Amino acid sequence: MRLFPSLLAAALALTGCVSVHSRPLVSRADAGPSAALGTGLVSAADPRAADAGAAMLRQGGSAADAAIATLLALNVVEPESSGIGGGGFLVYRDAKGAVQTYDGREEAPHAAGGDWFFANGQPLSIEQAIPGGRSVGVPGNIRLIYKASHDHGRLPWKALFQPAIALARDGFVMTPRLHNSLDAYRETGALSAEARALYYGSDGHPLSIGTRIRNPALADFLTMIAERGPDSFYVGPNANAIAATVSHARRNPAPLSIGDLASYEAKRRPPVCGIYRAYRICGMGPPTSGGTAVYATLKMLERFDLSTLGPNSPVAWHLIAESMRLAYADRDRYLADADYIPVPVAGLMDPAYLAARSALISPDRTIANVTAGAPRGATAVRPGLQPAEHGTSHLVNGYYLNNELTDFSLVPNVNGVPVANRVAGGKRPRSSMAPTIVFGSDGHVRLAIGAAGGATIPAQVIKAIIAVLDWHLAAQQAIALPVLYAPSGPTVYVEKGSSLEAMIPALVALGHSDVRAREPSFKANAIEWVDCHWAGAADPRSEGAAVTP
User: What is the rounded distance in angstroms from the CA atom of residue 192 to the CA atom of residue 194?
Assistant: First the structure.
């Protein structure tokens, strides 16, 4: 399966607020998506994972403890899109009010180069590049959660694993979303014998909805990491198994070594923060594009009276689309791993630059040809191919490996100019993850939010933030609103079967020549501070849940 970037858990406690992005896909709890209280709350893509996080809060754990337990439980119940075989990001507001961000993104093997996705001198198609070993990067989540636990945890490392271990050992019920995902990616998701044995029947189809699935190999492996620490993932039998699986894959074998695993580090990164109206927006910087894209889109909209227009106005959605197109054009050209190429983060976040970009937007017509701007600090790089989302196949010790390296550009140069997001040894591919914390003018957390869905992640987060701050909707209502996704080209995508689909003629009249309805594949989670308490929100399109301790 594809390991979709998504908000795993937003857990708020007296110690702080955390927004975590990694890999998920399912949920809905008895407490309902609007559960609320004064001391803490967990919102996640599956109720069983949200329960795991809430259990940490009941034990006196911090927001970091809750987020880690949620991630680990999601690994069990969302094997197709979450967990320790992939990577993620964390945005954390600590007890002193400071925002800290952590990068646990997957990493290319040190043997990788610009021709990593080439065969016989020609670039592979995305369909050819994804299956097998070449798309697998060094997983980062175990190093990420250990660093977060060390810096912000209250509970013992071992305690954070117990809910996930119980789910894997005692079993969990196959949900409709998991079943449908396993079915959709049947050709790749069941390539390995281990995956077939766990999730598929003798007829090659996924086990039926309601089937109890037990994963004893994963339970044993999580127990080992809980007892021995993170090095047991990156050194020893598990590292040997990952390296062997990738290096000897039946399709696209790739030289991922035990040295690549042993040398991996999760990294502290500077947050990207800026002011939108009276609010401070803080997100994750490179190698994800989510933080800069979300803030740039919002800031370019600041001069328009979105509040008066409201969510039923085609003009409001037109303005959002135009701003998003400009932000995505800059994202496509400049965002990459800042350890390998200069990324003009300060220039992309500069209010003067964004005001100049905003001046290109008109409420009654579209920009004919959207191109990247020239922010301060920009260098000569080119955009590259942004591949579509697809599936992966490898199971090691009961968990799926990621295939996130296809988030790199498949070609290293365009017209002789280097692509910012080209492959390089040890480099981390550009992401769209957008874990975001919004602060009110009083400095208190107003909203923590994130989403799943590949390149649509910033669009989902942008829409929800506007709905809360400008349209004065509850976070639950904001997430439930339909999604508009406008990458840098002329095509604008609106959610099929929604009020936005009915607006297509109005959007065309405003100059959008290609507006298409697409099936919803969105999944967002949020927590907000409202009326002196925390309130949770989960996407009604998913099985998401907000759970109190």
Answer: 5
